[in-house]
Specification:
The structure holds three protein chains of three kinds. Chain A is mostly helical. Chain A has eleven helices and four strands. Classes of the chains: A mainly alpha, B alpha/beta, C mainly alpha.
């Protein structure tokens, strides 16, 4: 019994993490029709900002050495600035391009950033001890839950609530939703396009920073590719959730995370390394059955 | 060189039966019955927002009716995709022309000919044939992004014809044209049934063109059928005048 | 009523000009570097020619459909591994790749049939994947091709008994010479050209311009994309076989993200709208990579050893690609083939045909 609860907790925790990533991607996609590969690097760079750039596999801490609140603030700041920078330099000039151009440009930005990190930090995975106290398990109702899982779920819930409030109650948030539904119309109605898009990127950076911290606490390692898998999962989340739908992106991320953990637990041991392939195949199958995604928005259909 | 081409198995009747289309709370069309026969030119008119383009979208398969059906020679085609309907013999032009801009005029037509099953070579033959008839032969190898506005619209019609359809649905072909261009367009449309053996549904705001080429006219207003009859009947119809010109003008003639 | 007389030389020339304009310079490059170039330059030329096969194959789908594919490395890898399974290391296979079926594990298959089988396998894989993926809209399809890339990477990296996991399979017969690579590049260019001017090519290019108008013209988005994707898989599969038998080794991590990025960069920089764009992009990026490889390796300036830090190459290429996207978004060739100026004028409507 306890085992199933354990698995469920893991599933919800990972699902939450991927929901955050899905949201970040969905938000930027909503305002710009851009599938942002660079989100992976927002996560990676946020994490690497915790350490001093060296070739060592146990690097001295940089932001990681600061008191917790400052450290968190610092990482979030770094990622938000990075996101805004990429928006300003790489994506704004391409704003009205067709989706293929946008897609390929975000791939290029991501490749650039990935190699930049490699140049500065070298490619070997590094170990980082952050928030080690959280690795300890907390006893809840007879089940031992690692503190970091609780933290992940709590942070995700908190961020989700904050985001929903923002999108529903604040003027900029409402404009962002309007832009996601119909960008041209929103612009004609006086939406400050630059500000809304920049804000979308900033929020995606914030979410990315949160994911960096949670991942680093959870795994204790820094890896060049650490942002890649969550973001790839995030793309699929957005696609199966329904492109242009924020609840869909979060839902998709959640489902993909849960599926991943369930497969990891219940697959026979020799098939476990193929878990990711299994999830991706599931994604493609879902798309086959429901090509427009789980939650359909008007963003999907073209007017004739 | 030009003769009415009768496709084997080409269709005789295109009907809309009780077609209704609702988008959320908006009823774009409510219970519209329409019939188009081969060899005739039927006009579809109505004030803005009457549902004319929605009707064309339903007939050509781009919009599924919420209720009612589209029948081709009695066979229900409402569930077919737009592409299958095109292959079944219903061609259409678009209000916004929607040409393949990077391709030449001949290539644009050839695409439709290929869509109807021809090989590349035969498609080019058919394309040049049609262009020749429409007086566009000189522009055959011009890229569409270099065309004048009037030529663009003509190519759009020509492309629909290159499908060799049983029915051609033309969505506001005359919009933005000057008088001379309208005259030329009217000649082309009037000749379509004889030349191509097809039926034509013509959506237009330009009353001169409508009255000039249509044998029958169907009037829509607010998504519903208002009237149907000969051009003269429609001109005289008070309900039609009211819909277009408001209460005061109900007694004056519909000036053309 | 088409005339049965032979088309004139001029007509044949005009027809094949876009192809000849690409093939002749390539042949010249091979001849000149074969005579005067050093070994390293010759190797670069062979790599360039193999890249042309792959990128032209990629272009056949991406350029004609307008849909970006991140998954083509999958088919390159499938063909490369298939060729390795058939032709490599007869002595070692029963040990290192014990999971292979007996007819592969216990013997070697002659080079030509094995190459053909490998390429057909890649094409079949592309067809099957396409059956599923082409049902999706452009963006979802692109993301799904990414999924396919990852699926193959995960599977091949972990299927130790058959692929040796993430280790390299070494010892493949290396029979690819510059002339063989050139012949394959010419073949790829000819196939791509004939396809794009055929009825199938025209149909899919129409879907790229305007999906709605194409549907109204009776063109099936699904079938036209599926055909392009399959042909494309065939061609990159050929590239995979060439790559395997040029390097002599096969390793799954050589067919993952860096490979995908480089292939797409070559296509985008040259211009994904035309065949000439694909070829020009390969030449330009190959030259850049070669220059940076040498700079990273170290050169002497005024008696001092000086080298770029490793990894600069990737940064510069990514930055270059972004610059092209911003300032010349249709690439160097801007979606045009190499043709006669007269033809271009006619298309612009400046003279009448």
């Amino acid at each position: 019994m306890a085992n199933i609860v354990q698995v469920l907790v893991d599933a919800i925790a990972l699902g939450s993490l991927y929901a955050l990533v899905g949201l970040a991607i969905g938000l930027v996609f909503g305002v710009m029709r851009l599938v942002n590969f660079a989100q992976a690097d927002y996560i990676t760079i946020g994490a690497y900002a915790l350490v001093v750039p060296t070739a060592s596999v146990t690097p001295p801490l940089l932001l990681g050495a600061l008191p917790t609140a400052v450290m968190i603030g610092g990482v979030l700041l770094v990622v938000v600035v990075l996101a805004l920078l990429t928006e300003r330099v790489a994506f704004r000039p391409l704003r009205n391009s067709n989706p293929s151009t946008l897609l390929i440009s975000s791939f290029a930005v991501s490749y650039f950033l990935q190699n930049l990190v490699m140049l500065i930090h070298t490619g070997r995975p590094k170990s980082v001890g952050i928030g080690q106290s959280l690795a300890n398990a907390v006893e809840i109702g007879g089940v031992r839950v690692p503190g970091v899982q609780l933290l992940t779920m709590g942070v995700t819930a908190g961020l989700l609530v904050a985001l929903v409030l923002f999108l529903k109650k604040t003027p900029l948030g409402i404009q962002m939703r309007a832009a996601a539904e119909n960008f041209q119309m929103a612009r004609l109605l006086g939406m400050p396009a630059n500000r809304v898009i920049a804000l979308a990127f900033a929020i995606s950076g914030l979410l990315g920073g949160a994911v960096s911290l949670l991942l680093t606490i959870q795994t204790g390692t820094l890896d060049l590719r650490m942002g890649l898998m969550p973001v790839v999962y995030g793309f699929f989340a957005t696609v199966i959730g329904g492109m242009g739908s924020l609840p869909g992106a979060a839902l998709g991320g959640f489902l993909v995370g849960v599926a991943s953990v369930l497969l990891q637990t219940y697959l026979p041991a020799d098939l476990r390394p193929f878990r990711d392939a299994g999830v991706f195949t599931l994604v493609i199958l879902i798309l086959l059955v429901r090509p427009q995604g789980l939650i359909v928005t008007s963003a999907a259909k073209e007017r004739v | 060189m030009s003769r009415p081409s009768k496709r084997s198995g080409s269709k005789e009747r295109l009907e809309a039966r009780g077609v209704a289309v609702a988008f959320g709370g908006i009823r774009a069309l409510s219970g519209v019955d329409l019939e188009l026969r081969r060899g005739e030119v039927l006009g579809l008119i109505g004030p803005n927002g009457a549902g004319k383009t929605t009707m064309v979208n339903v007939l050509s398969g781009f919009q599924r009716p919420t209720s009612g059906s589209i029948r081709l020679d009695g066979i229900d085609v409402s569930r077919l995709t737009a592409r299958k309907i095109a292959q079944a013999g219903i061609g259409r032009s678009f209000q916004a022309a929607r040409l393949f801009r990077m391709m030449t005029v001949e290539q644009n037509l050839s695409v439709a000919a290929i869509g109807s099953g021809l090989s590349r070579r035969k498609a080019r033959e058919r394309a040049l044939d049609i262009l020749d008839w429409m007086g566009l032969a000189r522009k055959a190898d011009h890229r569409c992004d270099s065309l004048s506005y009037g030529d663009e619209r003509r190519v759009s019609i020509a492309r629909a014809l290159a499908l060799q359809p049983s029915f051609a649905l033309l969505d506001e072909p005359a919009s933005g044209m000057n008088d001379a261009e309208c005259e030329a367009l009217m000649e082309v449309i009037a000749e379509l049934p004889a030349r191509f053996g097809c039926g034509v549904l013509l959506i237009e705001h330009n009353m001169k063109v409508i009255m000039g080429v249509c044998q029958r006219i169907h009037v829509l207003d607010g998504g519903q059928s208002l009237a149907e009859g000969s051009p003269r009947d429609i001109q005289m119809n008070p309900a039609v005048r009211r819909a277009y010109l408001g209460e005061k003008a109900a007694d004056s003639t519909l000036a053309i | 009523m088409k005339s049965k007389t032979m088309p004139s030389f001029a007509a044949i020339g005009r027809f094949w000009l876009p192809v000849l304009a690409l093939v002749v310079p390539l042949a010249l490059i091979v001849t000149v570097t074969g005579q005067f170039g050093g070994l390293s330059l010759q190797r670069t030329v062979i790599e360039m020619l193999i890249s042309i096969v792959i990128v032209v194959g990629l272009y056949v789908f991406v350029g004609n459909s307008g849909v970006i594919s991140f998954g083509h490395a999958t088919f390159v890898a499938i063909a490369a591994y298939a060729s390795a399974w058939q032709t490599c290391c007869e002595m070692l296979k029963p040990i290192t790749m014990a999971g292979l079926p007996p007819f592969l594990r216990d013997q070697s298959i002659p080079l030509l049939p094995s190459a053909i089988v490998s390429v057909l396998l890649a094409a079949a894989a592309a067809f099957l994947t396409g059956l599923v993926i082409m049902r999706l809209t452009g963006l979802a399809a692109s993301i799904s091709t990414l999924a396919v890339l990852f699926i193959l990477n995960v599977v091949y990296s972990n299927w130790d008994s058959v692929t040796m996991g993430s280790a390299s399979i070494v010892g493949l017969p290396t029979y690819v010479t510059a002339w063989l690579a050139l012949a394959c590049a010419v073949l790829a260019i000819v196939i791509a050209y004939l396809y794009q001017i055929s009825a199938f090519g025209l149909a899919i290019r129409a879907t790229r311009e305007d999906e709605v108008a194409a549907a109204a013209s009776g063109i099936s988005l699904y079938w036209s994309r599926l055909i392009a994707f399959t042909l494309s898989g065939f061609m990159v599969g050929l590239g995979g076989v060439l790559l395997a038998h040029y390097l002599g080794t096969v390793s799954i991590n050589n067919f993952f993200l860096s490979f995908t990025f480089l292939a797409l960069a070559m296509l985008i920089v040259g211009g994904m709208g035309s065949l000439a764009g694909a070829v020009v992009g390969v030449v330009v990026i190959t030259a850049m990579v070669d220059i940076f490889r040498r700079l990273e390796g170290g050169i002497s300036i005024g008696g001092e050893q000086w080298s770029l830090p490793a990894g600069t190459q990737e940064l510069i290429i990514a930055a270059f690609m972004l610059l092209i996207l911003v300032f010349r978004k249709d690439g160097i060739m801007a979606g045009r083939e190499i043709g006669l100026p007269e033809q271009a004028q006619r298309e612009k409507g400046l003279i009448n045909g």
